[in-house]
Amino acid sequence: MKSVLYLVRQHDQDLWNYIKWQAKNGYPDWKPQCPKQIVTYLENGKKDITLDVKPPKCLKNMPLRAIEHDFHDLFQGWLYNESTAEAVISLYDKTIGESRRISILDPMWLVNCSKKDIDCLFVNKIVYEKRDKAQAMQYQGIVDDCFAKDINSEIQTKSKI
Fold first, then answer.
1. Which one of 15, 29, 33, 99 is CB 3.0 to 4.6 Å from 92, fit for a cystine?
2. How is the chain split among helix, strand and coil, in percent rounded to 5?
3. With a threshold of 0.85, does the pTM exceed it?
4. Could you report the per-residue pLDDT of 81-108, keeping only the tens digit for each?
């Protein structure tokens, strides 16, 4: 037991040394979120310190991958592949006798499917193993939300009455 703890500590030592070096040199590689202190003095002479925390810089819009549209006619099924941690949509073209697949790494990519493809994926639920239920349900949940809220890649036009 003691040797395992020693290995873990020895492994973490490099990381801790790197963190200490970052702090000592003013974080050249990292940009930590440091709040600015605003000091005001109250009537009784005590300090009132307010921390002004700026929101972190992050992505405003998630980049989505373009997905093949109108594959519902070729659809065979879809499943969660645990070895690659992605959903795989299996297609079969009867005219040329060829099968192929579409790999979906991020569940949000499914938002770019057409309305008929969303309907197809909603009706035909994702296949998964019991231990992968949580991950697979993320993909199915996105499809269910897209179906319920009519979210798809087709352009929605508003009719003027």
1. 99
2. 35, 20, 40
3. no
4. 999 899 999 999 989 999 999 999 889 8
